[in-house]
C-alpha cells in the first residue's frame, strides 16, 4: 500500500507540473498595443420607443410631432429615446430651423443618412449620446454653425461617420467612430472646428480629414488600425494638431499635410505607420516639434527610409523658442535627423526622450479559473495524512 500511494502521488505531481507548464505557455505575455481593444458604446435599441422617420423643415414642425421642451434656450424641443429604422431614406432630417433642439439617446439606421442637419441657426443644435450605424453618413451637418456633436457612436457606415460642411465653430467631441467605409471625421469649408477626444478605429480611408478649412484644432484623439492616413490636412491654414495618438497605418503615413500653410503639428504620438509624417509639395511655413515617432518606416529600394519627408517650402522641424525638435526612435544620438524630400530638411535638435508614451506591451491576464484546481491538487499532495488513514493501514 505504501508503494502504491507513492506512485499515485508521483502521478498527481506529474499532472500538476504538466498543467502549470501548459497554461503558462498558452497565457504567456504577448506584445500588443495597450489600446488595441476599444470598448464601443452598447449598440442596442432596447428600452427605446419605435418612431417613424422625422422630417422637419421649419420651426412649426416640432409641434406637429409633439416633441417636448427643454432643448434650451427658451425651452424649445427635445428628440429623445427613439428607435428609427429609415429603410427608405434619412432617419432624422432637420433643416431651415431657428429654434434650439437636442437629439439625444436615439438609435438610428438609415438607407441614406442617420441624422442630417442643414441650414439651422447658429448655436441651436446639440446631437449627443446617439447610435448612428449602417447608414451612408452617420451624422451630416451642412451650414449649421456652432453645432455640438458629443458622445455619439457612429460606426459601420458606408460613407463618413461625421460629415461637416460650412458649419463654423462646431465641436466634435468624445465620439466613438469605428469601421466606417470612408472617413471618420471630415470637415470642409469650415473654420474654428474642434475635433477633440474622439476614438477612431478601423476606418477604411482617412480618420480625420480637414479640407479647405482654417483655424481649427485636432486634439487628443486616438486613431488606430487603418490602411490609410490618420490625419490629413489639405488646402487648409492654421490647423493645430496636438496630443493625438496614432497607431498602425499599414499603407500610408500617420499625418499627411498637403497644400497647406501655417499649421502646427506638435506633441503627437505616431507609431507603427508606413511613414510617420509626409509634407507634400506647396505646403509652406508649417511647424513640427515635440512629436514622438516610433517605428514608422517604409521601404525604398530595399532599405528602410527615415520617418518623415518634406517636399514643401520653409517648414520648420523644431520649436524656435526652446530649440527642441522631435523624438525619433531611430536617431543615432548624434547630430541632426535628416528627412527625405526635395526640401533637404532636417530636425536640428532631435529629442533623446519621447514626449508621449508609446504604445507598449500588454500582458494577457492569467485565467484564474485554472489556478483554483491546481491549488487544490497541490494542497492534497502535500497534505499531512490523517491519523485515521494510519489506523486503517495497520488493520490491513
Task: Provide a brief overview of the structure.
This protein is α/β, with parallel strands linked by helices and 396 residues long.
CATH topology of the domain at 49-226: Pectate Lyase C-like
* Average pLDDT, all residues: 84
Q: Specify the overall morphology.
A: elongated
CATH second-level architecture of the domain at 49-226: 3 Solenoid
Helix content: 10-25%
Please name the fourth-level CATH homologous superfamily of the domain at 49-226. Answer: Single-stranded right-handed beta-helix, Pectin lyase-like
Q: Strand order of the main beta sheet, please?
A: 1-4-7-10-13-16-19-22-25-28-31-35
The major β-sheet equals: 12 strands, parallel
Query: Span between N and C termini?
Result: 9 Å
* CATH top level assignment of the domain at 49-226: Mainly Beta
Count of DSSP helices? 4
**Total beta strands:** 37
Structural class by sheet pairing and helices: alpha/beta
Kindly provide the radius of gyration, computed on alpha-carbon positions and rounded to a whole number of angstroms: 29 Å
What are the segments in which pLDDT stays under 50 over at least 5 consecutive residues? 13-41, 362-376, 386-396
Sheet-strand content, in percent, reads: 25-35%
What do these coordinates show?
The radius of gyration is 29 Å and the shape is elongated. The longest helix has 25 residues, at 2-26. It is α/β, with parallel strands linked by helices. Among the domains are: 2-30 and 365-395, no CATH class; 49-226, Pectate Lyase C-like, CATH 2.160.20. 13% of the residues lie in helices and 32% in strands. Strand 36 and strand 37 form a beta hairpin.
Amino acid at each position: 500500500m505504501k508503494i502504491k500511494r507513492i506512485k499515485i502521488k508521483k502521478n498527481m505531481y506529474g499532472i500538476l507540473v504538466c498543467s502549470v507548464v501548459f497554461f503558462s505557455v498558452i497565457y504567456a505575455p504577448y506584445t500588443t498595443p495597450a489600446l488595441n481593444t476599444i470598448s464601443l458604446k452598447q449598440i442596442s435599441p432596447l428600452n427605446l420607443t419605435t418612431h417613424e422617420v422625422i422630417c422637419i423643415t421649419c420651426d412649426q414642425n416640432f409641434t406637429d410631432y409633439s416633441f417636448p421642451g427643454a432643448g434650451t434656450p427658451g425651452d424649445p424641443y427635445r428628440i429623445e429615446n427613439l428607435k428609427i429604422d429609415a429603410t427608405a431614406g434619412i432617419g432624422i432630417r432637420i433643416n431651415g430651423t431657428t429654434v434650439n433642439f437636442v437629439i439625444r439617446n436615439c438609435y438610428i439606421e438609415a438607407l441614406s443618412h442617420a441624422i442630417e442637419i442643414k441650414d439651422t441657426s447658429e448655436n441651436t443644435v446639440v446631437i449627443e449620446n446617439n447610435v448612428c450605424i449602417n447608414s451612408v453618413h452617420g451624422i451630416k451637418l451642412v451650414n449649421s454653425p456652432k453645432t455640438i456633436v458629443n458622445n455619439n457612436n457612429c460606426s459601420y457606415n458606408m460613407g463618413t461617420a461625421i460629415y461637416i460642411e460650412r458649419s463654423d465653430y462646431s465641436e466634435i467631441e468624445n465620439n466613438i467612430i469605428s469601421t466606417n467605409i470612408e472617413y471618420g471625421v471630415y470637415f470642409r469649408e469650415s473654420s474654428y472646428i474642434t475635433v477633440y477626444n474622439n476614438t477612431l478605429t478601423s476606418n477604411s480611408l482617412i480618420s480625420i480629414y480637414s479640407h479647405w478649412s482654417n483655424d481649427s484644432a485636432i486634439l487628443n484623439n486616438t486613431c488606430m488600425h487603418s490602411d490609410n492616413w490618420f490625419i490629413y490636412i489639405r488646402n487648409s491654414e492654421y490647423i493645430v494638431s496636438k496630443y493625438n495618438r496614432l497607431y498602425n497605418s499599414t499603407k500610408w503615413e500617420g499625418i499627411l499635410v498637403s497644400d497647406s500653410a501655417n499649421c502646427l503639428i506638435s506633441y503627437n504620438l505616431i507609431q507603427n505607420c508606413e511613414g510617420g509624417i509626409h509634407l507634400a509639395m506647396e505646403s509652406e511655413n508649417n511647424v513640427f516639434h515635440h512629436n514622438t515617432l516610433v517605428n514608422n518606416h517604409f521601404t525604398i529600394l530595399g532599405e528602410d527610409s527615415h520617418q518623415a519627408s518634406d517636399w514643401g517650402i520653409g517648414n520648420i522641424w523644431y520649436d524656435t523658442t526652446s530649440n527642441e525638435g522631435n523624438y525619433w526612435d531611430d536617431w543615432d544620438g548624434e547630430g541632426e535627423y535628416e528627412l527625405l524630400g526635395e526640401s533637404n530638411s532636417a530636425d536640428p535638435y532631435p529629442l533623446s526622450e519621447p514626449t508621449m508614451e508609446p504604445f507598449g506591451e500588454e500582458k494577457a491576464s492569467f485565467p484564474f479559473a485554472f489556478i483554483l484546481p491546481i491549488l487544490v491538487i497541490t494542497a492534497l499532495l502535500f497534505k499531512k495524512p490523517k491519523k485515521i488513514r494510519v489506523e486503517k493501514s495497520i488493520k490491513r
